[in-house]
Amino acid sequence: MSRLPVTKIPKDPNRSTQNAVSPFRYPGGKGFMSAFLKQRMQLLEAPTNRVLAEPFCGGAGAALILLADGFADQIMLNDADLRIFSAWHAILEEPERFVAKLRKVSLDMQEWYRHRDLVAGFSDNKYDFDVGFSTFYMNRTTRSGIIMNAGPIGGYDQRGKWKLDARFNVERLANQVEWLAANRNRLELSNMDALSFIDRVRRKPTSDNTMFFIDPPYVKAGGRLYFDGMSEAKHVALSDILTSGTVKRWVLTYDDAPLIRQLYRSQTCSNISVNYSLQSKRRENEILVEPNYL
Ligand SMILES: C[S@@+](CC[C@H](N)C(=O)[O-])C[C@H]1O[C@@H](n2cnc3c(N)ncnc32)[C@H](O)[C@@H]1O
Q1: Does the beta carbon of 213 sit less than 6 angstroms from any atom of ligand 1?
Q2: Chain-centre distance of CA 151, in angstroms?
Q3: Pairing of strands 268-273, 286-290
Q4: Residues 28-40, buried b or exposed e (16+ Cβ, 10 A)?
């Protein structure tokens, strides 16, 4: 494939993985985009009531940093996966119960299997606190935060250097949950397909002052990492809505696949480079798409 221009993602001086706002770990999480998105938020019309909307929110690493650092007044988080939604909903609507459970839960393999089975067997179609908590537990105790089909940190025999509790600092997680609960009125949560979500948000009176940060599952690897609600037809439908001119401000990140280059050829495309990060190699395979308003 031909070379694209490169966009250097600046380092956010206030934030690193050590002081993340999101309580989730997320494979390919986009917390590293926060300084770039802060710049983009300044393009919004009004300096007040600025909204950041994430149709594929996952752990919402970047959106929460913008909320915490005052670059967004309101964030709208949406994820089609009911297990992820249940985890967010449990944190936001039942924070005391969630924190009490965090403080009590054991970090051993017997407990891990219990949460794994609950998440794997979930087939309901409505919010469930226990599934939400188990999803969160899996996110914090499996290798690289993958919720399904990944092994526990430290291995099944727990003989690795790091064990199940390596990423489960109870007090830190409790603080993050409490911060979210305290900011509850600045967060809107939904569990829709991303396309319906974008359609709904673009019709709101606040849409002129809304920035969409769109981070869909990858075209190539999506299915392995997350619940993947994206067929090729849906990738195409997403590009239809974004390039129609009816969604004013958006930033899109994807894997650099031929389909994506083709769908967004009329927009501003570049590759991402994150110079300060050890993960810079991986980022070269990602593409950043923005509308041609810049
Ligand atoms: C790449 S992840 C987002 C990661 C996020 N940006 C972060 O930093 O944590 C993609 C998310 O999209 C969700 N998803 C997949 N298909 C979807 C769809 N059709 N509509 C809405 N969400 C979807 C998945 O459940 C997953 O959490």
Answers
A1: no
A2: 21
A3: antiparallel
A4: bbbbbbbbbbbeb
User: What is the Å distance from ligand 1's center to 24 Cα?
Assistant: 13
Taking the centre of ligand 1 as the mean of its atom positions, its distance from the CA of residue 113, in whole angstroms, is 25
Nearest to 22 by CA among 100, 74, 73, 77: 77
How many whole angstroms separate alpha carbon 157 and alpha carbon 279? 29
pLDDT tens-digit readout, 57-105: 999 999 999 999 999 999 999 999 999 999 999 999 999 999 999 999 9
Question: How far is 206 from 201, CA to CA, in rounded Å?
Answer: 8
Fold observed for domain 82-184: Adenine-specific Methyltransferase; domain 2 (1.10.1020)
For ligand 1, say whether the CB of 84 is within 6 Å of any of its atoms.
yes
Class of domain 1-80+192-294: alpha beta
Question: Ligand 1 in contact with 29 (CB < 6 A)?
Answer: yes
Question: pTM for the full model?
Answer: 0.94
Rounded Cα distance, 151 and 109, in Å? 11
Task: Give the separation between CA 227 and CA 234, rounded to whole angstroms.
Answer: 14
Write the DSSP symbol of residue 70: T
Q: Residue ranges per domain, the chain?
A: 1-80+192-294, 82-184
Protein residue with its CA nearest to atom 16 in ligand 1:
229
Output the CA–CA distances (angstroms, integers) from residue 91 to 20, 37, 137, 276, 277, in the order listed.
Answer: 16, 25, 12, 32, 30
